[in-house]
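Hey, resending since the last one bounced:
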Amino acid sequence: MTDVDFTALGIEPAEFKQKYGPWALIAGASHGLGAVFARQLASLGLNCVLLSRRPPVLEELQRELESDYGVETLVVGVDLMTEEAVATIIDKVGEREIGLLVFNAGAPPFTENFLKASADEWAGFVRMNTVTVYRCCHHFGGQMVERGKGGVILVGSHAGFGGTRKLSLYTGTKGFILNLGESLWAEWKDLGVDVLNLVIASTDTPTMREHMAAHGMEVPEGMATPEEIVPLGLAKLGDGPTLVHPDDVDVPAGEKTRGDLRRDHVLESTRISAQFIGD
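The structure tokens again:
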């Protein structure tokens, strides 16, 4: 069971459940940050829809959440890289009220020079980090806007801030998610729906360990863990559009964080754009 002191982080569980419940949908819930999100949201009393390509792993997590926290859960085995992914999710969710969407997926299938893989081999990954994420935001976020409450957390990467060798489509699609999230924050912030880009550096997850092992590299000491990052994201959900970890942690009083600067940019860009495209 989670031992997070949410009150110390400024989260009042009953209020959190009221605003972001009764159901959270977590994409990429089988391990790493996704599984930690599920555990911590369940501990706050939210029912959880668990998505990944590995239903047996999700079913283990399902039993844990139901036993430890007494919440309802739904397992949806789905490959987010496929064309039918969003239709499957919507069908399986049915009439359940999703108050919080956590999109935590998007690790590249391989880290390689752009031309070492065919365009077709890249296509599913690009679909997951563009079409799948925007359609999930459009469907479930649209329902939240209609209700006047809810939240969206898009787990991103520092890679989204600029290009990197051997990560062309990772940086490109993470940049898409970052800009999408900041734009939705600007559109929905006065409509009762919170949007947060949780932008993280290298994190000690099973996926990261697999990538590093494949390249003969050891995991460095002191790498951030999902258990450290997830509660910060939940605590800052109402302070979007962007939390950059670890840069925005322990910033001296009076100094702006990277997230603050990005918020300023979004607001200023929105103001300037309104002169040409309207409010």
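The first strand starts at residue 23 and ends at 27.

Sorry for the duplicate.
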